[in-house]
Design goal:
This protein is an all-alpha fold. The chain has a domain of 56 residues. The chain has four helices and no strands. The longest helix is centred in the middle third of the chain and has 17 residues. The radius of gyration is 18 Å and the shape is flat.
């Protein structure tokens, strides 16, 4: 592991790490981008940047307000953000 780390540093490349030096901080963002690619980008053949922007804008609206997320006990991120209950009367945000 040390040799690989030195190889990256020697090329002046930054390695994404969490605060404790592990590459786990991006796991949630990587999962989001996987969803975006497979549920939106790969399904559409955008002809222009504007089409891509419009498609992604609509997708993120859907992703946050309509699409149910298993990790959120089948609620939307918007519901969680607004502090609505998740199973057993628990909430993920203070209101």
């Amino acid at each position: 592991m040390h040799c690989l780390h030195e190889l990256f540093e020697s090329g002046r490349r930054l390695i994404s790490m969490d605060g404790r030096g592990r590459a786990l901080d991006n796991v949630f963002v990587e999962r989001l981008w996987r969803s975006v690619k497979y549920e939106e980008v790969f399904l559409h053949d955008y002809a222009t940047v504007e089409e891509a922007v419009q498609g992604l804008r609509k997708y993120f609206e859907f992703y946050n307000t309509v699409r149910l997320h298993q990790s959120l006990e089948y609620q939307t991120p918007q519901e969680i953000y607004e502090g609505q209950e998740i199973g057993g009367g628990r909430t993920l945000c203070a209101t």
